[in-house]
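User: Hey, quick favor. My workstation is busy. Could you predict this chain's structure for me?
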Amino acid sequence: MQIESVLINEAQLGTALNSSLTQRRRNDFALLLASLSYDALDFAQFQLPKTRNQSPVVGEQQLRRELGAAKHRPCAPPHYDVVLTQGQRQTLALSSLTSLRLQDCLAPTPLAIRDDATHIPLPVITNCAPNVQAKQGQQSMSLSEAQMDAAAFYDQLSEIKAQKLFASA
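Assistant: No problem, here it is.
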């Protein structure tokens, strides 16, 4: 049995693996299996055929028009805005959920009312363990609260140095 290139996956063997099994050639079967790659990403089922993309880059507007997709919906407004939810609440109170959906389809509103990646909602924090809540409270301190008093720190260092000198004498 002659193999011309380095074996990576079972698709390169063709029917050699199957024929060695059906003809009860255990040595050939073991050799073929041992020569395959051990990495699961090299298996034949993960090697998809590659095709060239011959079409130029298509813009978002063209895709929306071709697919019949709705207008772009922002994830969040640039500034914190509670008025959005108040308007939706009034629409829901005065009419029905269907009219709220229709209004949202005609004029898409943002999915969230704040654009702050570091904001964690209060119900999430209250569900955490007490040590996580304390850590979150410490992290949310402003920089002005977290600043160090350099003069007091220098005084403490001087006192410690004086105590060590006094203790060694």
